[in-house]
Amino acid sequence: xxxxxxxxxxxxxxxxxxxxxxxxxxxxxxxxxxxxxxxxxxxxxxxxxxxxxxxxxxxxxxxxxxxxxxxxxxxxxxxxxxxxxxxxxxxxxxxxxxxxxxxxxxxxxxxxxxxxxxxxxxxxxxxxxxxxxxxxxxxxxxxxxxxxxxxxxxxxxxxxxxxxxxxxxxxxxxxxxxxxxxxxxxxxxxxxxxxxxxxxxxxxxxxxxxxxxxxxxxxxxxxxxxxxxxxxxxxxxxxxxxxxxxxxxxxxxxxxxxxxxxxxxxxxxxxxxxxxxxxxxxxxxxxxxxxxxxxxxxxxxxxxxxxxxxxxxxxxxxxxxxxxxxxxxxxxxxxxxxxxxxxxxxxxxxxxxxxxxxxxxxxxxxxxxxxxxxxxxxxxxxxxxxxxxxxxxxxxxxxxxxxxxxxxxxxxxxxxxxxxxxxxxxxxxxxxxxxxxxxxxxxxxxxxxxxxxxxxxxxxxxxxxxxxxxxxxxxxxxxxxxxxxxxxxxxxxxxxxxxxxxxxxxxxxxxxxxxxxxxxxxxxxxxxxxxxxxxxxxxxxxxxxxxxxxxxxxxxxxxxxxxxxxxxxxxxxxxxxxxxxxxxxxxxxxxxxxxxxxxxxxxxxxxxxxxxxxxxxxxxxxxxxxxxxxxxxxxxxxxxxxxxxxxxxxxxxxxxxxxxxxxxxxxxxxxxxxxxxxxxxxxxxxxxxxxxxxxxxxxxxxxxxxxxxxxxxxxxxxxxxxxxxxxxxxxxxxxxxxxxxxxxxx
Length: 746
Ligand SMILES: Nc1nc2c(c(=O)[nH]1)N[C@H]1C(S)=C(S)[C@@H](COP(=O)(O)OP(=O)(O)OC[C@H]3O[C@@H](n4cnc5c(=O)[nH]c(N)nc54)[C@H](O)[C@@H]3O)O[C@H]1N2
Ligand SMILES: Nc1nc2c(c(=O)[nH]1)N[C@H]1C(S)=C(S)[C@@H](COP(=O)(O)OP(=O)(O)OC[C@H]3O[C@@H](n4cnc5c(=O)[nH]c(N)nc54)[C@H](O)[C@@H]3O)O[C@H]1N2
Ligand SMILES: [Mo]
Hints:
Layout: E1 2-3, E2 10-13, E3 16-22, E4 34-40, E5 43-49, H1 62-65, H2 67-71, E6 81-83, E7 92-94, H3 97-115, E8 120-124, H4 131-141, E9 146-148, H5 159-169, E10 173-175, E11 195-199, H6 203-206, H7 213-221, E12 225-229, H8 235-238, E13 242-244, H9 251-264, H10 270-276, E14 277-278, H11 280-287, H12 292-299, H13 303-315, E15 319-323, H14 333-346, E16 356-358, H15 364-375, H16 378-381, H17 391-395, H18 401-410, E17 418-422, H19 434-442, E18 446-451, H20 456-461, E19 464-467, E20 476-479, E21 485-489, H21 502-513, H22 523-531, H23 538-544, E22 547-548, E23 576-577, H24 581-585, H25 605-608, E24 613-617, H26 633-636, E25 643-646, H27 648-654, E26 661-665, E27 670-677, E28 685-688, E29 733-739
Parallel strand pairs: 8-9, 8-17, 11-12, 11-15, 12-13, 14-23, 17-18, 18-19, 24-28, 25-27
Antiparallel strand pairs: 1-22, 2-3, 3-4, 4-5, 6-7, 6-19, 10-16, 20-21, 21-22, 24-29, 25-28, 26-27, 26-29
Helix pairs in contact: 3-21, 4-15, 4-21, 5-14, 9-12, 9-13, 9-14, 12-13, 18-19
Molybdenum atom binds at residues 126, 150, 157, 325.
């Protein structure tokens, strides 16, 4: 066990109380940075980075710095609300928690009695730390239908990566930026990666899934050279040795061409390949179909650049891939993920210092899995929505989002009657084919939304709205960073109004629905029980601040990856399966390949005349988390309107000037955003922001806070998930852009 020395978590400073904590949600956030919360007269005054927290070392993003504006915002939900008018009318009545819980429990139990617990679905979005509790909540009610994790369509955020890695090497890997070690860069075994490929990712804006962006900057300062693959010139692209301005959705072809160069020029790690991989010869044969010359035409990347990048990556020891959500957000995403995993495997960068390291998680899985088995009867999992549709989804125990919407609309094979929506702004952000999703949720008999603010989702669907606490208003356990490190979130202030933490809400309502499954008297007792596998109590963890699990490199050599403790990887063959027996069993191609996006200048040339531009969406901004923060003055000021980025040459052709309002239109829908001319985007590509609604506009129907005006997901249709059930083309779509007449502006 590696923990910090005991240090205070609360002290007095300059007439204020300082509370050491970890930033989690709400509001939305993907990782957890150490924070110092300063409180005066019971009010949060300011937030600073905690220099003593080894993973963030005092750094913070603009959203944490604006936290007081979130907490004390006049629009915060403060009390449980019951709908009194029609759905969407915006007429609410304040009720007590007791009445809210009773109404929900009665209604859920009534549905359970009439249709079975599976007729209640449980939905959540990304990154919030409520997932384990919500999982327990759904299971203890008996429903196998916990949906979400951000994008409903194709589960196109991180899950495809998790599943691909589980299939290929039976584990989960992240880029090694010394985050596994409390002493970080000073750890004797850690090595600075000589080369970092940043692939479809902008870590300095997003700090996504297991990585804080400043780790990349730290590595750059220590000598790492970057290869960046992005259709837009991002901060990291501007600082790269090689920036490949790829055509959206062609990443699999690029990875295969890089493999082609590495294999044909004998730049791979022969010893690792021989001893630890399965199916190299088949892969070698497959990559012959992807010579750089051909792939240059597919990807729009010059052939020499592909070759140079492949050589630079393969000859740098060590080298690492840091990949982003752009890779999950194409239709046949598993292909690219498979090929990239093969890249770091054949070059011997698997689980080595400064490579892609295999990690585990510390606290929840054991507790949650036990809980799940105790409370979710076997026969219930066969009722999971979409079961049998996609073998790989079944293998991974996932719900295909499109099957969920289909079932909500058709009642086949059984009706969905109610939704528990905790921390997702579904149709404003997390789903494609917005109108269809909207219709599906509208059909349900009873919906509960737990959120910080009245969102378009809550306004449109909710019968009961419950107010959630922000992280300084509650205790919690933080586990992020894609690494076995945990710490406590420490309450610094009393919640405003009657807000409660998500965990409290799940526990209190869980007790009413199934008391046996929730034996704990309060949240603290629940946390202690969940921390048992990690061997610490909440109070001990709080006093230390953080706790790292053990970490070793090259675990496959030491028998640390397989349940039988034999050397090797936790796969059917015991090797990294370049040729995947799991994918094969699931009826999928066992080798990576490239498929054109469903709409592209190549696959649908007939529509290019009318819709000539490739639309990529949703590249994150530093100031918003998805659809959140639009009501926060200091953040909104930095990005007041929805922005579509267009190359100046193209803009000129289209008669569009900087900051003009324009329509972006696909074959399926349109919305309006404001043009920003940018040299950094390819002239054949435009990029539109996602998640836009306008808290300042009227809430009641039909406006729903203007959610139909600039919502880019109106342009994205259903029916386009990949063959595996994973993947959706959120970032590859054909569109046209044109200027709006003056009268239609704003
Ligand atoms: N076009 C396009 N669409 C996309 C994407 C894209 O790139 N392009 N990206 C997709 C991805 S990767 C994802 S993950 C999804 C994300 O989609 P969602 O996860 O649905 O994200 P949000 O819309 O921000 O919804 C989060 C809601 O939860 C509330 N909230 C925040 N923290 C808490 C909390 O701790 N407790 C509770 N109870 N509520 C909280 C917020 O106020 C907000 O209303 O969007 C997807 N949508
Ligand atoms: N500030 C902030 N941080 C966030 C979030 C947020 O909303 N706000 N959301 C969180 C969530 S849920 C997620 S999933 C992560 C995502 O974080 P990232 O993985 O960084 O995702 P994006 O910003 O969507 O896209 C990264 C880059 O991919 C590029 N790109 C677009 N299409 C393609 C393509 O076809 N191929 C390639 N190679 N590149 C492409 C875009 O231009 C963009 O620069 O961020 C998390 N962190
Ligand atoms: Mo995501």
